[in-house]
Amino acid sequence: AKSAGRNQYCFYQSSTGQQTADELKMEQALRHALQQRQLGVHYQPKVRLNHNTIIGFEALVRWQHPTFGNVPPDSFIPLAEKLGLISALSEQVLDTVCEDINSHGLLGLPVSVNVSVSQLTDPGFCRRLCRQLKQYNVSTHRIELELTESCLIPEQAEATMRLLTELRKQGFRLSIDDFGTGYSSLSYLRRLPIDTLKIDRSFISELPDNEEDSQIALAILAMARALGLEVIAEGIETAVQQDFLLNAGCQTGQGYLFSRPVPVTELDVTEDILV
Ligand code: C2E
Ligand code: CA
Ligand code: CA
Ligand code: CA
To answer: Which UniProt key words apply to this protein (predicted)?
Structure first.
């Protein structure tokens, strides 16, 4: 039952398999929003759990449509992927991140951006990322790439390995997002040049009462330690969850408990202490 909740909501679900009028409208609206560069970016702090100090930010795309209102990324990201628009979308997100780094500083800390699977199979991905950052004079060391386990297609293990190695060599930090929800084998994971595992929110939300989830969180932490990887827990909403994770040896996290994703101008970050 729970696994269903871990699946992403998909936009195209009409029973006939045909696009409904609403879906077509949404498609046109998304194309328009991209052309007009109307997508925004919000930032959610990542914190050190023992002191609540900020250690970085995750950039999350936002789409405020005049009539549809706020459209959630979980619905328009799959749509952008389906329409072949995800590279254009990601490029706009990174443009905004670079502009915000240059005009607001973002404390000089790393900023994470989310990467979709189709970007990883694009042979020019690393080269174009580097060129884009260079245009803004932003160092690759400032940018962390969050890849989901679904990005790590086993059939493309060799190509993925080459790409991740190249990205790492160029200075990007790499993390595996939504960790625990995919099927990547440990032996594969062990060989990948990644820095961080991000424990999926679905394992955090019922801590500490849910015994199964507690065990999974502990197992991921133990595994990360064994592999020498950093761990961050996402979706922390309560102090009880924070305490559980701290006691389990998890040093970093993010979630509504600390801050929701907010516009760059609403980040209270002259100090790295969250207020
Ligand atoms: P994600 O990468 O796993 O991002 C975390 C999501 O959890 C975000 O939802 C964030 O707002 C939400 N979240 C953070 N803390 C909490 C919490 O304490 N409780 C709860 N209930 N939720 C929390 P958001 O912004 O709606 O994004 C959803 C997904 O859309 C992201 O999941 C990511 O897969 C995708 N996405 C967002 N922005 C981008 C982007 O720029 N590019 C790509 N390719 N995907 C993106
Ligand atoms: Ca993410
Ligand atoms: Ca995640
Ligand atoms: Ca997710």
So the answer is: CBS domain
In this structure, the number of other CB atoms found within 10 A of the CB of residue 202 comes to 18
Whether residue 266 has its Cβ less than 6 Å from ligand 1: no
Q: Which tens digit of pLDDT belongs to each residue from 203-253?
A: 999 999 999 999 999 999 999 999 999 999 999 999 999 999 999 999 999
Fill in the amino acid letter for 187. S
pLDDT in tens, 139-194: 999 999 999 888 887 788 888 999 999 999 999 999 999 998 887 777 888 889 99
Q: Which of 275, 235, 273 is nearest to 257 (CA)?
A: 235
Report pLDDT for 1.
Answer: 30
- Ligand 1 pocket: which of 8, 114, 232 to mutate (most atoms within 8 A of CB): 114
Report whether residue 184 contacts ligand 1, using a CB cutoff of 6 Å: no
- How large is the ipTM? 0.98
Q: For residues 37 and 93, what is the distance between their CA atoms, to the nearest angstrom?
A: 10
The number of the ligand 1 atom at minimal distance from the alpha carbon of 77 is 45
* Ligand 1 contact via 60 beta carbon (within 6 Å): yes
Distance 142 CA to ligand 2 centre (A): 16
